[in-house]
Every structure is written in structure tokens, then in C-alpha cells.
Amino acid sequence: MAELWQRLEGMGASGSRFGTAGRLALALIGGYLLISLLLGWWWDYEPRPFAVREHAAAHADSHGRSLVIGYTTTVTLIRLADTLLDKRGGYLSNDVFPPGVWMDNVPNWEFGVLTQIRDATRAFRIDFSRSQSQSSEDPDLSVAEGKFFFDNSSWAFPQSESEYRAGIRLYERYLERLADPTQANAQFYARADNLQQWLQGVETRLGSLSQRLSASVGKRQLNVDLAGDPAARRSTDVAGDVDYQTSWFEIDDVFYEARGHTWALLHLLQAMEHDFGDVLDRKGARVSLQQIIRELEPTQSALWSPVILNGGGFGFLANHSLVMASYVSRANAGISDLRRLLAQG
């Protein structure tokens, strides 16, 4: 009997130890989840717009440089990339642990910004830094473009951040050469055709964004892929009347991606207005560019709703995607007009 009692006492002590360990594990997990939720709330943040000209002037003054043609656009591009990596919470698109892995609004915003950076780096390599189609590419800009086109979700070997920071360093080297009067091999050509080429890519991006945002409520659209060219052909047959509908799970993703696109584009256009000022004035197009900037500014207004609402038509609830699509479409129409002005003699 005594032996049985000793065994029961041993089992009770073991169960008590197990219960204490289990409670401790649960407490640690709960604390980790609570901290992750608080960090997620803190990191769910979109940087506010900054003053482009003031930032460029302060940057040039701090480095003892003059604001040569192209300086404002280049330093603005560097600031966009720095903000992408160093904002509150850092770069989240490649996070594999909570809270970053749970978040999707900021990573989609990051992808919109990154896409505009990629388009701009391509324009720098192909157009802005070259005098003619047969001229040589700038060595720093040629390598930097590939750095920014690296996979945006790579978390190791190498990390996305390390590649993007390498691209930033290459642009800083280009900027240093650009501002040095003895370095004639680094140039930024503010010509109407260069600006027009970059705007053509911007127009395509905004047109796609507008379509995706408008599809939040679904729409029926005629297929106009081959309109205007009776000899045109396509690889496979497509229905002449197509339904477009953004998935309910992707509506907020498209909205925040659009916020990122327009945030980056707003700053780039302001920088272009400064560096291409003489070209715009000669074409009588400065006010057209200023109006595009004004159309984009409301896209960065504070969002007071905790969720992206998707009301339909003239219904009771708002539709944030359609409001954003309205601003994007008006800016896109303005860019189309601006490109025509730049093409005129």
C-alpha cells in the first residue's frame, strides 16, 4: 500500500511540472502574439509625401554641390528607394515571421513604389543618361537597374534589401559624378523626347491601374484589342464581350498598390518639373504637368475607414477603389495630353 502511494505522489509531481511548463509555454506564445499584433499595428504605415525641391537643395548643400540638371530627379529617386527600405517597420515584402508575414497592405504599397522605381531606373539607363541611341550606357546605371529588378520577396541569399541598397549606392556614385564638373562622362539629358518616352511608360502603368481599380465592382467590357487595324491578328481567339471582376480578397491589395504607385509618381513628376523646366516652358506644357500633380495629390489623403469599402454604383457604402480610379484616370488623361504637347515642334 505504501509503495502504491509513493507512485501516485510521483505521478502528481510530474503532472505538476508538466502543467507549469505548459502554462509557461502558453504565456510565452501569448506574449509573442500580443507583441506581434502591436508591431503590426505600428508598422501598418504609409510614409507621407516630402518636399522634393527642398530635399534636393538640402542634399546638395550638405554635400557642397550645385543643383545641376538631373540632380533633383536623381536624388528624389534615391530618397524613394531609401524610404522603401527605412520606413517604419523597414521592408516587409520578404518577411517570413509575424507580424510582417501576416501583413499585406504595406507590402502591396511597397510593390507599387518599387514598380515606379524600376520604370524610372530603366528610363535613366536607356534615355536620361544617353545623348543618342548609339551612345554608351552609364556603367553605374546599367548595373543599378538589375539590382532594383531583383526579386522583391527574397529573404536570404541574397536578401532583397541588400540588392536594393547596392542599387542605391550605385545611384549615389552616379549622382556624385553628375555634380562634378570634371566628370563629363556622367550626364542627364533634359530633352522633350526623353521625358516623352518615360511618360509613355507611366501612361501604360496608370491605364492598367485604372482598369484594375474599376473592376472592384465588376464590369462588362467589349474587346477592343484589335480595334483600328483591320489587318491585326492575335495568337488565340478571345470572346468579344468579357466580364472583369477583381476578387474580393484582392480589392485592398490593388488599392494599396495604387497608393504606392501614385506616391512615388507624385514625387518623380515634381522632380521632373524642376529638371525639365526649360523644356516644359518652351512647349507651353508646365501648367499641364502641374495639373497632373494636382490630380495625384488627393490619392495620398488620409484613409479614415479601417477597411477598404467596396460599395457598388450609387449604393449606400462608398467604394474606395472607384474613388482612387477616378484620380488615376484623370492623371492618365493629363499625361496623354502632355505627351502630345511634348511631341509638337
Largest sheet: 2 strands, antiparallel
Q: What is the number of strand segments? A: 2
> Uncertain spans, ≥5 residues at pLDDT below 50?
none
- Computed Rg: 26 Å
Give helix % range.
55-70%
- What is the residue-mean pLDDT, rounded to a whole number? 90
Shape field? globular
Q: Compute the number of helices.
A: 11
Number of separate domains:
2
Helix and strand sequence: HHHHHHHEEHHHH
**Category from helices, strands and their pairing:** mainly alpha
Question: What is the rounded distance between the termini?
Answer: 109 Å
Strand content is under 5%
Biggest sheet, spatial arrangement of strands: 1-2
Describe this structure in words.
Helix 4 runs parallel beside helix 8 and helix 8 (251-275) packs antiparallel against helix 10. The chain has eleven helices and two strands; from the N terminus they run αααααααββαααα. It has two domains: 35-40 and 47-189; 190-223 and 240-345. By secondary structure, it is mainly α. The mean pLDDT is 90. The chain is globular and about 80 Å long. 61% of the residues lie in helices and 2% in strands. A two-stranded antiparallel sheet has the order 1-2.
Task: Break the fold down into its secondary structure elements and pairings.
Blueprint: H1 2-43, H2 52-62, H3 71-86, H4 105-128, H5 139-148, H6 160-178, H7 192-214, E1 219-222, E2 241-244, H8 251-275, H9 277-283, H10 286-296, H11 320-343
